[in-house]
Design brief:
This protein has about 110 residues and is α+β, with helices and mostly antiparallel strands. The chain is built from 3 helices and 3 strands. Strands 1-2-3 form a 3-stranded antiparallel beta sheet, covered by helices on one side.
């Protein structure tokens, strides 16, 4: 198996190597060749005690809708009495508004 390795030349003339897939594995060496040999050994050691498995993780948008009300959208689309219901709601709201208007105290102008 091939691994991509980030090799960094250090200020003190040494080298550091880190596998891209395993950023926690960091090795150093005097020269690039030695550093690559050490990182290869570290990967072999890691492989002998580990294994790579694939798991499915749902995207956030798959687990929760963007808008929580979205799942209710259109639930009354085929309701035969929907227009009548809407008219009744509008009439009820209008009657409440009228009632509140009548109950408002008169403004004191003096």
């Amino acid at each position: 198996m091939r691994y991509e390795i980030v090799v960094t030349k250090q200020v003190n003339n040494g080298y550091t190597a880190r596998p891209v897939l395993f950023p926690e594995v960091v090795v150093t060496g005097a020269d690039e060749q030695e550093t690559l040999e050490r990182v290869r050994a570290a990967i072999v050691d890691l492989q002998s005690t580990s294994r790579i498995v694939a798991i499915d993780v749902p995207l956030k948008s798959e687990t929760t809708p963007v808008d929580p009300w979205l799942e209710f959208a259109g639930m009354w689309a085929d309701e035969a009495n929907w227009e009548t219901f809407q008219e009744e709601v509008a009439a009820y709201r209008h009657s409440i508004d009228e009632q509140e208007h009548l109950e408002e105290p008169l403004a004191d102008n003096g």
